[in-house]
Amino acid sequence: MTISIEQVNKFLFEETRYLDDKDWDSWLEMYAEDASYWVPSWDDDGELIEDPQTEISLIYYPTRSGLEDRVFRINTDKSSATSLPQPRTSHNLSNIEIIEQFDGVCKLRFNWVNYAYRYEHVYTYFGTSFYTLDTSGPTLKIKEKKVVLKNDYIHHVVDVYHL
After folding, report:
1. To bridge 55 with a disulfide, which of 49, 82, 110, 162 should be the other Cys (CB 3.0-4.6 Å)?
2. pLDDT above 80: residue 71
3. Average of pLDDT values for 110-121?
């Protein structure tokens, strides 16, 4: 199925709303079972790493089960990276593009900025995301998500709700 930029926008805005509202179950439902989630790191020469299997990533989950485990830890306060209160976030998207569509697949690229507030401080994160969507079923599903964090020199742990 070919999808329109309006359908893409609705889908992406829905995902950011789920993150901002901490609606983790709805957020996870947007991902296919075999979806990968990758936030590559930058090497010493200022180049992005190319292989999450052999190089260090900021975040890498090869399937949705890794995201499910992450959400479990966030929800149950069993994460050293996440403690209460969780940050309040505001995700903002721009320059949303459909790069290509073929055989039930849609590839996207967009820029984003996220503001996170916690303990009387505001933190800003920004970057570019690349998605591969499965458009063959009754609902759109994320098959691959690659998030390039442009300001990766940060003072705290980065988690899925920051991106």
Report:
1. 49
2. yes
3. 90
